[in-house]
Structure formats: structure tokens, C-alpha cells
Design goal:
- By secondary structure, the protein is an alpha+beta fold.
- It has a single domain, classed as Alpha-Beta Plaits, CATH 3.30.70.
- It is built from nine helices and eleven strands.
- The chain has a five-stranded mixed sheet with strand order 10-9-8-1-11. A two-stranded antiparallel sheet has the order 2-3.
- Strand 4 and strand 5 form a beta hairpin.
- The longest helix is centred in the N-terminal third of the chain and has 10 residues.
Length: 313
């Protein structure tokens, strides 16, 4: 995918150069190679209301300190993804997401698929919600329960969702899940105040999915999936600032996508996802593409909640 193939989401060519100071300010990283730290409170004090993200047309809340509206994006470098075969565990991006969001079993908001390569061999493809900028799901919801924020995150308001599941049928990536039963909740989440960006506690008869963790980015941390990836294959950033990081490396989004022929899943559908993929099959971490199979996903939090299993889909 060339730079000119990204007319809507690619940052203009005149964006300022990527530097360490801007990425640290954006994500609150104290130093490269260490865990993300909270952004200094005064950076966001005048921009975001406590515990609240930009809902629907709330553009003012979505503005970055420089006045621009953030546009979150994710880049998954498949050259560094081996399905966690090298660590002998289930995909850690999936596990971290489940643990962080208390996702009901068997929901995998970011699911790692094993796909055949042309000729022979396989590759692993982590698939979160693709955060489409022309999303079929928002167009079909009869009550406006699923919507796009000014930052581009596609969210679901479970207090408005009527459980018709039309949005599930409209999603070409099969990235939406339905709570048929009353989802079990671990003790630490029982008294949580429901927020549309958190989806905790989950509610019976509603749809759930990956929320892209915009609240975490605004708080100065990477999404759970990016933090959990042992090979640092997941980058998260802002198209408006043209920067992204995996916690160790800083990249210019536009240059990184162009230089490595990035692509979107099912580009021909015109959904304009904000999740991009760098082609590969784990070769940068020594994976042999002929080695097939991944370990089954675990739900780490179920041990802390009685009757945690729920049947979805």
C-alpha cells in the first residue's frame, strides 16, 4: 500500500518530524524500553473531563493539547508476530485484552487467526475491531447505540443497545459479540461505574467488542493488547500527530506504512479501517512459517468470579 493510497487517514506530508519529545508527551512514556507511565495531569487537565471521553460529536473533548482532534490508529507488524509460539503460551495480546476488560468467555476482542500463505506455510493475524471510518455497523443500528467518536473510535452504548444484533450481521470482520446470558463479573468490577468506553460491567442482551482503548491512550498508556505482546508487534498512535509506538520504538505512521507496504483487511469493501498490517509471518522473531498451530486462549480472570463462563455468539 503506497502513501497515496491513504487519502482519508494518511497524515498530510507537511506534518512535523517525529521526535522523542512529541511521542513521550503523547503517551507519557518516561523512557524507551520501559512500561508506559501516566501523562502528567496538567497536560490533560484543561482538555478532558475526568473519567469521560469524547462522545459522538463532542469535538472539544477530543482535542489534543495542540488543538487538533486526535485520530487513533493501530499498526500490527506481522513480521514480529508468531502467535506467541516462541513463548509457548496462548496469544498474549488476546489474554491481556481479556484480563483488562474482563471479556466474557469465549469472547476474543482481539483474536489471532492462523492464515495460509500463498504456496505453503501459515501466518498469524491478530484481528481487533478494525475501527472503520466508513463503518457498516453504525449505519444499520436502529437506535444509534453504536457510533463513532470524533477521535474515530467505534463504540457501543450498552445502555441504549436493544440487542437486535443487526450490527453483528453488518460487520464484515465478524468482530462483534453478543451476551446471551448474564455475564459473570469478577469482584473488582462489580461496583464499577458503567462507561461506554469501558463496557464494564457487561450486560445481558447487548453487543460488545474491542473499544480501541482510547481512554488508556488519553491516560498515557498503551492498549492492553500492545502491552501484552512479547514481541512488540503492535503499535498504537495518532494519525493527526503522525506518531506511533509499541512501547520501545517510535515511528512516523505515514513513513512506516509506506516503506513497509502496509495494507488493511478487506480493503476492497471501502470500510477504511484504522488498523494497518505490515506483511510478514513472524520471520523477524525466527518463526518458521511451516510451524502450525497456536495454543487455546485462556480467560485468566474466571478464577476470580463464580460462574464466569458465559455463552456468546
Amino acid at each position: 500500500m503506497d502513501e497515496q493510497d491513504l487519502p482519508n487517514d494518511a497524515p498530510p506530508a507537511d506534518r512535523p518530524k517525529v521526535d522523542r519529545r512529541r511521542i513521550l508527551k503523547l503517551f507519557g512514556l518516561g523512557a524507551l524500553g520501559v512500561a508506559p507511565l501516566p501523562i502528567l495531569p496538567n497536560v490533560l487537565k484543561s482538555v478532558f473531563s475526568p473519567g469521560r471521553g469524547p462522545m459522538r460529536n463532542d469535538v472539544d473533548v477530543a482535542r489534543a493539547p495542540n488543538g487538533r482532534v486526535r485520530r487513533w490508529t493501530m499498526i500490527i507488524d506481522l513480521r514480529n508476530c508468531d502467535g506467541c509460539q516462541s513463548v509457548g503460551k496462548p496469544p498474549q495480546c488476546t489474554t491481556a485484552c481479556i484480563e483488562g476488560h474482563f471479556a466474557p468467555e469465549p469472547m476474543e476482542w482481539i483474536q489471532v487467526f492462523e492464515s495460509r500463505l500463498p504456496g505453503d506455510g501459515t501466518q498469524f493475524i491478530p484481528a481487533p475491531c478494525q475501527q472503520c471510518q466508513n463503518p457498516p455497523c453504525t449505519n444499520v443500528c436502529p437506535v444509534g447505540a453504536t457510533f463513532a467518536t470524533p477521535e474515530g473510535s467505534i463504540l457501543i452504548d450498552q445502555e441504549r443497545c436493544i440487542g437486535c444484533r443487526i450490527c453483528m450481521g453488518a460487520c464484515p470482520y465478524d468482530r462483534r459479540f453478543f451476551n446471551w446470558g448474564a455475564p459473570a463479573v469478577p469482584p473488582e468490577a462489580m461496583l464499577a461505574h458503567y462507561d461506554v468506553e469501558h463496557q464494564t460491567p457487561a450486560r445481558r442482551g447487548t453487543v460488545m467488542k474491542c473499544d480501541f482503548c482510547p481512554d488508556m491512550a488519553r491516560a498515557g498508556t498503551l492498549p492492553y493488547c500492545a502491552q501484552g505482546c512479547p514481541n512488540k508487534a503492535i503499535y498504537y498512535g495518532d494519525l493527526e500527530q503522525d506518531v506511533a509506538t509499541n512501547g520501545e520504538e517510535i515511528v512516523s505512521v505515514s513513513r512506516f506504512l509506506s516503506e513497509h507496504q502496509a495494507y488493511n483487511l478487506k480493503e476492497d469493501l471501502g470500510t477504511k479501517p484504522r488498523v494497518y498490517y505490515i506483511p510478514g509471518h513472524g520471520e523477524m522473531v525466527g518463526r518458521d512459517s511451516s510451524k502450525k498451530g497456536r495454543l487455546p486462549t485462556e480467560w485468566p480472570w474466571v478464577k476470580r468470579a463464580k460462574g464466569a463462563k458465559t455463552w456468546s455468539r
